[in-house]
Design a protein that fits this description.
By secondary structure, the chain is α+β, with helices and mostly antiparallel strands. The chain has 4 helices and 10 strands; from the N terminus they run αβαβββββααββββ. It is flat and about 60 Å long.
Length: 169
């Protein structure tokens, strides 16, 4: 019987060691270390002459987006953080946000659509996210008629996770 425990213990350690998350990456890590743990970013944008924003997005079907700022001078990343949460979405209340600003902060949206009639017709970007790591939500960010500047935003339940009750379902 003891001969069974050793392989199980070794297997368990191997499996658990492969479970690394963005929280395991220390601040000011070299970019190579972050790439080894997170993979290649899905989106990059230039913040200023010395800084590039790196984004690892699981959109359109996933619910998480991680970002970090890469210093071109030192080759280090400040910290990796999850950005699809209310604290980050509330930043949209401050100042004027262009479509490029939104994409550089939250990554590419899961869906781009239009809503409204006549004068109220607007471009809407949709981001799927986990509210409080529990509820399946979407954030709707409205970018005006021309799709260039944020006018407002709101969240709601993700329709993909809503149960449809029809007859005896």
């Amino acid at each position: 019987m003891p001969y069974l425990f050793r392989p199980i213990a070794i297997f368990s350690l191997v499996i658990l060691s492969a479970c690394t998350t963005y929280r395991d990456i220390p601040s000011n890590s070299p970019a190579e270390v972050v790439y080894a743990k997170m993979g290649k970013p899905t989106h990059e944008c230039t913040i200023d002459t010395n800084t590039t924003r790196l984004i690892w997005s699981q959109q359109p079907r996933g619910q998480y987006v991680y970002s970090a700022n890469l210093s071109r001078q030192t080759g280090t990343i400040d910290r990796v953080e999850s950005v699809l949460n209310l604290a980050h979405f509330r930043q949209l209340d401050k100042g004027i946000w262009s479509a490029q600003d939104v994409q550089c902060t939250f990554g590419p949206p899961a869906e781009i659509g239009r809503t409204g009639l006549g004068e109220k017709n607007e471009v809407v970007w949709t981001y799927r996210y986990k509210e409080a790591n529990y509820w399946n939500n979407v954030m709707y960010i409205y970018l005006g008629k021309d799709g260039q500047q944020v006018t407002h935003y709101h969240s709601g339940p993700d329709p993909d996770y809503e149960r449809v009750f029809w007859l005896f379902y």
